[in-house]
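[Discussion] Sanity-checking designs against the backbone

I'm trying to build intuition for which residues belong where. Below is a structure token string of 340 positions. I'd appreciate it if someone posts a full sequence so I can compare it with mine line by line.
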């Protein structure tokens, strides 16, 4: 059951990244491409019906971790308290920017909230990458499964590293670029005309950056976290996950060149699935590795809830997720097509 819940939690987090990831990427597009009021409104209308529903998947993922791996939930939220508090405030700023933007018709009011929305979206994409980098690199867990990390120390991965070092900054940059590609492809799919073409140009530039940073970050991840290499060597079939990411990356380029916008967006989703699945496979059975004493790592076995609770929870999880998926499918089908 612990392995099953690990897979379910990974699927929930991946689903959130795909769905809310294009919302964050759309904010990056608004920040870098949209200039006129009409273009900014197009970006907001492209995500307007779905952005808040997409964030529900983050709550669902957090609830899954709280239920299935309570020790991980407690340890990560206390040790990464500062970073996660920053994430929370950025979510708040992003939400109120969307809600407050149209409350006052003033030449200063709307641009101010547009800047807040775009900046918060870009910062969230980056911070999520930094948090993922901490999970891959590992944290200084003690014998009780707890840790504390300052925001930064010497910027070098190791026993004395902070939340931010050169590796986690690199992962943060990779997340920013990846969601920039993902969001720009969503905006391309939902818009038309000159703004769509401008967003295509941004997507193409981001794609080259994503290729470069993927090639750089992949070998560095194996160097920073030796368990990754051990896992892939002992289970060679796991290479299917990086292969999915590579297929998605190539697919984005091919479909974009053919102006098949839906295919390009789905290929971007495949890239995200492949990368996140590769991380989950690489750290398994750990859910939070220790970079000081590997024996202190939190695993699916020492961090999971009781077996009976996991079984009972599964019976609630299945119908609950079925309803959530059905609602999401209905929403996306109802608001399909380009914004006017």
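Best answer:
Here's mine. Compare freely.
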């Amino acid at each position: 059951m612990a392995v099953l819940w690990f897979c379910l939690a990974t699927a929930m987090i991946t689903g959130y990244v795909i769905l809310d990831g294009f919302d964050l990427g759309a904010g990056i597009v608004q920040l870098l491409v949209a200039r006129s009021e009409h273009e900014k409104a197009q970006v907001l209308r492209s995500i307007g019906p779905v952005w808040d529903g997409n964030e529900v998947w983050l709550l669902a993922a957090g609830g899954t971790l709280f239920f299935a791996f309570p020790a991980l939930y407690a340890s990560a939220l206390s040790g990464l308290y500062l970073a996660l508090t920053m994430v929370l405030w950025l979510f708040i700023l992003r939400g109120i920017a969307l809600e407050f933007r149209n409350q006052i018709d003033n030449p200063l009011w709307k641009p101010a909230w547009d800047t807040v929305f775009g900046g918060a979206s870009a910062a969230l994409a980056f911070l999520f990458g930094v948090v993922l980098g901490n999970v891959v690199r590992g944290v200084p867990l003690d014998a009780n499964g707890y840790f504390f990390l300052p925001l930064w120390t010497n910027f070098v991965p190791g026993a004395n590293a902070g939340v931010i070092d050169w590796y986690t900054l690199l992962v943060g940059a990779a997340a920013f670029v990846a969601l920039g590609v993902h969001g720009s492809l969503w905006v391309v799919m939902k818009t038309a005309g000159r703004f769509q073409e401008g967003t295509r140009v941004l997507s193409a530039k981001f794609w080259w950056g994503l290729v470069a940073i993927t090639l750089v970050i992949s070998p560095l991840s194996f160097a920073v976290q030796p368990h990754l290499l051990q896992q892939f060597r002992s289970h060679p079939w796991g290479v299917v996950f990086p292969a999915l990411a590579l297929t998605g990356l190539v697919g984005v380029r091919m479909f974009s060149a053919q102006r098949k916008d839906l295919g390009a967006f789905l290929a971007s989703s495949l890239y995200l699935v492949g990368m996140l699945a590769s991380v989950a496979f690489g750290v398994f059975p750990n859910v939070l590795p220790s970079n000081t004493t590997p024996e202190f790592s939190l695993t699916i076995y020492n961090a999971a809830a009781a077996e009976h609770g996991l079984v009972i929870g599964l019976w609630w999880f299945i119908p609950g997720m079925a309803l959530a998926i059905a609602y999401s499918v209905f929403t996306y089908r109802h608001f399909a097509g380009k914004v006017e």
